[in-house]
Amino acid sequence: MSELPKNWIEVRLGSIAKVQSGVGFPKKYQGIADAEYPVYKVGDVSKAFLYNSSLLSESENYVSSETLGVMKGNVFDIGTILFAKIGEALKLNRRVIVKKKGIADNNVMGVKAILDEEDDYLFRYLQSFDVAGLSRSTTVPSIRKTDVEDILVPLAPLNEQIRIANKLDSILAKVDKAQARLDKIPSILKRFRQSVLAAATSGELTKEWRDENTPIKHSEVTGKYELDWSIVEESALPESWQWVPLGNYAKCSRGKFSIRPRNDPSCFDGDYPFIQIGDLPRQGGFIYSHKQTLNEKGYSVSREFDAGTVVLAIVGATIANTGITTYPVCFPDSLVGINSASETTNKYLDYHLRAIKEDIRQASYAGGGQPNIKLTMVNPLPLPLPSEAEIVEIVAKVESLMARANKVEKQYLDAKARLDRLTQSILAKAFRGELVPQDSNDEPAEKLLERIVAEKELNKPKKAANKRTTKAKTVEKE
User: From what superkingdom does this record's organism come (predicted)?
Assistant: First the structure.
């Protein structure tokens, strides 16, 4: 730690605060919502944080005083700073302050200043400190109570602590307000992209184009499949458009990887790109990378699809996600490859599948169990088909609008990163003593520490008297 201002000292967190862990929370007590003590869990901490609040007073679970005695849990006083102590949640650096006395489960840790006046100062300092960096585990990150107690804290005079905390409250409230406005952008962009896709595949996006041009209806599309309206509702289309079964317009083929077990290492690490559901972009679009490759043995039991193929996920949690390959790839039968006459028409197919993604998902859940889609569902899917010239116009317009959305998204991510850095910069400045002026009349931190140690000693639980010694003294007296 850099040189501290005059009258500041560096101390162990454990010397000025009480560090406590939560306790195991048996399932038979969970779900109770009308008892006296809230039981704070990692989800409660995250929920408060995500609602842009640093204050925690509610939980989804409560216990009575009697249950509290049975569980023998530490009661976390008002002003305690709570955070996750294990797992991925530990890395998220989320801190909240308890505003209703309660207990916590064993995935949560709490820090309470010995002097109540220091609660806000310690809360802000722990916001600036990467607690996850204390983890000694190489698998699941976790921290120990003793390691938290050993965190070094720059202790300012008490009056200066209060000034720092007040200043930080004022500044970071403005940062949080800006962050709250920024956090609305992803959902706005999601709605925008979805509305573009819906407009593109309903004819609304190219309405003006049709007014200026006389599109010739697409040539008749024939095939063995008939339209199935069980997934999407039939709606009116522009006069030059028509509904056709997807399988009559494009070839839909399941991927293939027939080796068992599927993770047989003798099939991988070769020259042939192999994609799986996790490689599909979350919002659709192009597939630019892959995590696995097949060797000659793996390639011989798989199937290769050309660049420009539309890929549709047909099983699992990300069912109905799509992507378009940018180079030849192989993939398993959990994915379907869809190919029409050209890359441009394939793009249009991708837009349509993305536009009806939620409809496909709902249909996949209807059978119960693990959601899945069969080719017998894909081939009869109704496709709104415009003329070939209009497809070219649609693709050009969608690409232009999506490029604008991507530009806004990049600006959002850059702004969010700057705000995150700004918060840490402000906190760092505060704990270097540069945020508020020092006052020579303030009680030095050394004197403050003496008072804290005395207070800590005073509040130590008194040890029970030794019964044997007490009895001996009684006999001696008689």
Answer: Bacteria
Q: Mean pLDDT, to the nearest integer, of 446-463?
A: 86
CA distance 72 to 24: 10
The residue among 110, 117, 200, 97 whose CA lies nearest residue 158 is 117
Residue 324 pLDDT more than 70? yes
Please give the Cα distance from 194 to 201 (Å, whole number).
11
Quick one: DSSP state of residue 115?
A: S
How much is the pLDDT for 478?
A: 44
- The DSSP code for 90 is G
Its CATH class, for the domain covering 9-157+438-461, is: alpha beta
pLDDT at 475 over 70: no
In this structure, are residues 356 and 345 in contact, taking their beta carbons and an 8 Å threshold? no
**Entry pTM:** 0.77
Give CA–CA dist 145/153, Å, rounded: 16
Q: Which two tokens stand for residue 206?
A: 């190219």
CB 344 within 8 A of CB 402: no
Say if strands 152-155 and 9-12 run parallel, antiparallel, or are unpaired: antiparallel
Alpha-carbon gap, residue 152 to 30, rounded angstroms: 37
Helices (H) and strands (E) in the chain, counts: 16, 21
Fold adopted by 217-386 = Adenine-n6-DNA-methyltransferase TaqI; Chain A, domain 2 (3.90.220)
Find where tokens 């409250």 sit: 169
Coil, helix or strand at residue 12: strand
From CA 424, how far away is CA 420, in angstroms rounded? 7
What average pLDDT does range 211-239 have in this prediction?
92
At 308, give phi and psi (nearest 5°): 95, 0
The span from the CA of 323 to the CA of 310, in Å, is 6
Closest CA to 42 of 101, 8, 87, 97: 87
C-beta separation of 61 from 30 below 8 A: yes
CATH 3.90.220.20, the chain: domain bounds: 9-157+438-461, 217-386
Q: How far apart are CA 89 and CA 78, in angstroms?
A: 23
Is residue 433 within 8 Å of 157, Cβ to Cβ? no
What gap in Å lies between CA 445 and CA 450, rounded to an integer? 9
CB 52 within 8 A of CB 6: no
User: How far apart, in whole angstroms, are the C-alpha atoms of residue 446 and residue 2?
Assistant: 18
Average pLDDT of the chain is: 90
Compute the 3-state secondary structure of the chain and give helix, strand, coil in percent, each to the nearest 5: 45, 20, 40
Average pLDDT over residues 211-240: 92
**How do beta strands 17-21 and 108-113 pair?**
antiparallel
Bin 285: left if φ > 0, else alpha if -120 < ψ < 50, else beta: left
For residues 252 and 336, is the Cβ–Cβ distance under 8 A? yes
